[in-house]
Design brief:
This protein is α/β, with parallel strands linked by helices and about 350 residues long. It has 12 helices and 12 strands. It has helices spanning about 35-45, 60, 70-75, 80-90, 95-105, 115-125, 140-150, 165-175, 200-210, 225-230, 255-275, 285-290, and strands at about 5-10, 10-15, 20-25, 50-55, 110-115, 130-135, 155, 180-185, 210-215, 235-240, 295-300, 315. An 8-stranded parallel beta sheet has the order 5-4-3-10-9-8-7-6. Strands 1-2 form a two-stranded antiparallel ribbon. The longest helix is centred in the last third of the chain and has 18 residues, at about 255-275. The radius of gyration is 30 Å and the shape is elongated.
């Protein structure tokens, strides 16, 4: 069954439509509204369709004793607790409104990932056109159920999940009569190695669940998303930062503005190159065919009255006469006139 496109704001997202590119600012604002606004401006400059942040309150999503992930210990102060880190990276409600306003002014879709039903309800009241949930919440039935009931498109990452867990998550959304699901292949670590990406999973997800699919990328560099688009990704989500060397949980696995712009340009080139599935000579090829293909010509001087053999014929450019496939029109027939070597053959020359 063909997968239907899903509309996010003014963007149709799905097969046959341009890839929807999400510039994931995440927490790379470091708790600084000015930096967050700068990230929005950069997202617009590099050609993203959407800019995405994260909406959470540390005391809703983490206990004070929760340890940091291994990669967080490397990229942040190892002595700082995960609770303290997340508390420092919170965006306040007014920050969200200011960021959203700036994004809309610049023609971007504003998105943010909620980590609780309360956070999601705040974003609903803010008027976001879609919800994006992190991989950890593919198994969060209450959050999935709440968001699905609001009738908005849902972009769902699938890192760490089994097929059974993904199936249950999608069924939760569909039970609320919401079919607007975009499922992203994702491997949850920062960064991941190329052999951990598994882009072919997108095909598995599309076939199993009949949904729009995409790719949330945690690799270093900008090249892998281009391959994802070539394999059918309708959405690309990629972290970006102003400085990969800045301290913080996600900076190191993010793209700086120049590389993000290269990724966007590369994706748009790939989309152009994918073109049509119909094999036919293009107009430019039809013109080249005249000069690059070869025509049947006399290999030697052929006197009138001679029975023509294949050995008397050869192929030479231009391709304005009969091609090699027409050799039986001439071999075995009699020359009606003298045919000079290298003359392009015509039917009136034989009888």
């Amino acid at each position: 069954m063909p997968v239907k496109a899903i509309h996010i704001a003014t963007h149709p997202v799905g097969p046959g439509h341009p890839c929807f590119i999400i510039a994931e600012a995440g927490v790379n604002h470091d708790g600084d509204l000015t930096k967050a606004l700068h990230l929005v401006e950069v997202a617009a400059q590099v050609g993203a369709n959407a800019v995405k942040f994260q909406t959470f309150k540390a005391d809703r999503v983490i206990t004070a004793a929760a340890p940091k992930a291994s990669y967080q210990k490397v990229t942040t102060d190892a002595q700082e607790s995960q609770f303290a880190m997340l508390h420092r990276l919170e965006l306040q409600p007014d920050d969200h409104r200011t960021i959203q306003q700036r994004a809309v002014e610049l023609g971007l879709v504003f998105l943010s990932t909620p980590y609780s039903v309360e956070d999601a309800r705040f974003l609903l009241d803010l008027g976001v056109p879609a919800f994006k949930l992190a991989s950890i919440d593919v198994v969060n039935t209450p959050l999935l159920r709440a968001i699905a009931s609001w009738g908005k498109p849902l972009i769902l990452s699938s890192g760490m999940a089994t097929m059974g867990e993904i199936e249950r998550g999608i069924e939760t959304v569909r039970t609320a009569n919401n079919e607007q699901i975009i499922l992203l292949q994702c491997t949850t670590n920062y960064p991941i190695q190329d052999d951990e990406v598994n882009l072919r999973v997108m095909h598995t997800l599309r076939q199993a669940f009949e949904v729009v699919v995409g790719f949330s990328d945690h690799t270093i560099g900008w090249e892998i998303p281009l391959a994802a688009v070539a394999l059918g990704a309708s959405v690309i989500e990629k972290h970006f930062t102003l400085d990969r060397l800045a301290p913080g949980p996600d900076h190191a696995a993010s793209l700086e503005p120049g590389d993000f712009a290269r990724m966007v340009q590369g994706i748009r080139r790939v989309e152009q190159a994918l073109g049509s599935s119909q094999k036919r000579p293009l107009p430019v090829e039809l013109e080249n065919r005249k000069t690059m293909r070869r025509s049947l010509v006399a290999a030697i001087d052929i006197p009138a009255g001679t029975t023509i053999t294949e050995e008397m014929l050869t192929l030479k450019r231009p391709g304005t006469g009969f091609g090699a496939e027409a050799i039986d029109l001439f071999a075995g027939r009699t020359a009606r006139q003298n045919i000079v070597a290298s003359t392009i053959l015509a039917l009136e020359m034989v009888e």
